[in-house]
Amino acid sequence: MKTVYSLSNSTVKKNKETLDIPNHDVAIEMLLEKLTKLGIVQDVKEIEGVGHRVVHGGEFYDSSVLVTDEELAKVDSIEDLAPLHNPANIKGVRSFQKELPGVPNVLTFDTAFHQSMPKSTYMYAVPREFYEKYGVRKYGAHGTSHRYIGEKVAEILGKDPKELKTISCHIGNGASICAIKNGKSYDTSMGFTPLSGLVMGTRTGDIDPATIPYIAQKTGLSLEEIVRIFNFESGLKGVSALSSDLRDVEDVRDTNPHAAEAIDVYINRIKEYVGAYAAAMNGVDAIVFTAGVGENATWVREEVLEGLTFLGVQIDKEKNNVRGKVAEISTADSKVKAFVIPTDEEVMIARDTYNLSK
After folding, report:
1. Is 320:283 a contact under the CB 8 Å cutoff?
2. Which phi and psi angles does 65 have, rounded to 5°?
3. DSSP calls for 247-293
4. Is 345 marked as a binding-site residue?
5. Is 132 part of any domain?
6. Residue 168 shares a structural domain with residue 317
7. Domain extent at residue 319
8. Does the annotation place 333 within a ligand binding site?
9. Could you tell me if residue 357 is inside a domain?
10. pTM confidence score
């Protein structure tokens, strides 16, 4: 069972249904039918372009691209970098090609924005052949979201993105932080896979790789099983021994020591990355919180920013009492500005699709 979401342009609300969807072809047929039933389009012939979010573009792509057979072959060639996601993404493309023949399709990659990172931030200190032969390096994720935040905060401040040093904190069940310098990704917390960086709902975040063979030796677990546990049984869920949902953990923080420890680790990791990226960029002009937790958890923003006063950021607690809308949450005299900005990856995909489908 999967869930279909459709956006009604007349009421601006989500229409949700849970349906049995056997494959991508059927899913696309149902989606197109919904678009007409809801009046978003009168006829599918009105559709002039289709945008697709694709998790991984490897080193091939630093921007969105119009779909051709050659481009699909490139994406297929790096399937092993995102085996759970890229194949499904491409199935969606091929289904739209069947249903809407002749309509341009555009690929927007989560990794593309981070291709501007210098080698000093994306290279791992492993034998060079691991990188040159197998592509072992930092790629990052949430790039479309971080790109949106970099552009939006510049718009709010009335400045050119090239003039700013911004730290974008995309904090949800999956989470990453990005150092945006002069309008480009300079560094980001997720690495070769989305497993590294911040503590997340079920992911470990940064961890010594030597723990893997150690745990294997002690428990008899396979490497694959340990990696599965690091992805799906760790993070907040693992440390709290309670839940992957930050709200559940925070609710019992005062009475459950494991929950309190989980939150302490969670908050500390965010502060570590923000501080590190301020140092890496030799300063910061704005710190932005976005995504589910970043946009709604007022207490997370407060605890993070109160631990970063050495940077010159001062939180205004009254302004911080906001959820899910654009707001400056720093004091008027704060040297570093702090914002809540709801992310909008969909609008970035739509813009790229419009521009490339002309």
Report:
1. no
2. -145, 145
3. HHHHHTTTT-HHHHHHHHHHHHHHHHHHHHHHHHTT--SEEEEEHHH
4. yes
5. no
6. yes
7. 160-344
8. no
9. no
10. 0.91
Q: Is residue 120 part of a domain?
A: no
What 3-state DSSP class applies to 348? helix
How far is the C-alpha of 47 from the C-alpha of 103, rounded, in Å? 7
Q: What does the chain come to in residues?
A: 358
Residue type, 138: K
The sign of the torsion formed by the CA atoms of 160, 161, 163, 168 equals: positive
Least Cα distance to 311 among 340, 332, 351, 338 occurs for: 338
Q: What distance lies between CA 73 and its chain's CA centroid?
A: 25
Question: pLDDT (tens digit, 0 to 9) for every residue of the chain, 358 residues total?
Answer: 333 333 444 445 666 778 788 888 888 888 888 888 888 888 888 899 999 999 999 999 999 999 999 999 999 999 888 887 899 899 999 999 999 999 999 999 999 999 999 999 999 999 999 999 999 999 999 999 999 999 999 999 999 999 999 999 999 999 999 999 999 999 999 999 999 999 999 999 999 999 999 999 999 999 999 999 999 999 999 999 999 999 999 999 999 999 999 999 999 999 999 999 999 999 999 999 999 999 999 999 999 999 999 999 999 999 999 999 999 999 999 999 999 999 999 999 999 999 998 7
**Is position 137 within any domain?**
no
Q: Indicate if 181 and 324 belong to the same structural domain.
A: yes
Is 351 one of the annotated binding-site residues?
Answer: no
Number of domains in the chain: 2
- Check whether 282 is labelled as a binding-site residue: no
Is 171 marked within a binding site? yes
The CA distance from 53 to 234, in Å, is: 27
- The H or E element containing residue 5 is strand 2-7
Please give the positions annotated as active site. 110
